[in-house]
Fold 3-hydroxyacyl-CoA dehydrogenase type-2.
Amino acid sequence: MKIKDHTFIVTGGASGLGEATSKHLSTQGANVVILDMNQEKGEQLVKELGPSRTLFCNTDITSEDSVKKAIKDTITKFKAIHGVVNCAGIAVAMRTVTSRAVFPLDVFNKVLQVNLVGTFNVIRLVADQTKSQALTESGERCVFIMTASVAAYDGQQGQSAYSASKGGIVGMTLPLAREFASLSMRIMSIAPGTFWTPMVAMLPEDATKKIAENIPFPRRMGKPEEFAFLVQHILENTYLNGDTIRLDGSVRLPLLPSKY
């Protein structure tokens, strides 16, 4: 998929991995549509990247009506959608049972709704919008990228909801690729390791230090720009389809001490 002069939606595009992706695609000449709930940050990013090639939509990805409105606004401005990068997500660290409480079911449901159901909601509605769209020069209509996590494979204590939601992303990648083949669409997932994002910033400093020390090479947290570089490669490499790429410096998350 050619990036220049094509239109890409980035969910969670106003912060963290999504912000880095929005900025990087913009430097490659793309039209970038930022779906986020942070109005102030989203509008600021549009000014920074240029309003003629950027659009911000205050969007709740778990809402069908909200996503449909964002798609409609995108088509109105840019006429087509050529790709979606799903970065929107939330993280909750909470043990299932402690001496004082049990994991609230509504919290577990919220993590699944945002990370898994919200991702699927955006994909299904964009796929429906683009299923009859003209093929690009690469022979594709649309490319989807989902954000999983290494927590889908080796999650920590307290990550049951988060790991379940990201495991769901990994699990639906291949079935969706098989479905979308007849529509000339591709879908891939990226499973980032520990990156410097607002989510990671919430962890205790000694916890992030311990995780970084266990990254074989390079022995540091990932940079959001490195995630964006992989997004670019997936978009441009038309033979990548139906799989999840770990982007993690070969880390396998260690079992943290019980205090975390």
Notes: The beta strands are 7-11, 31-36, 54-58, 83-86, 142-147, 185-192, 244-247. The chain has nine helices and seven strands.
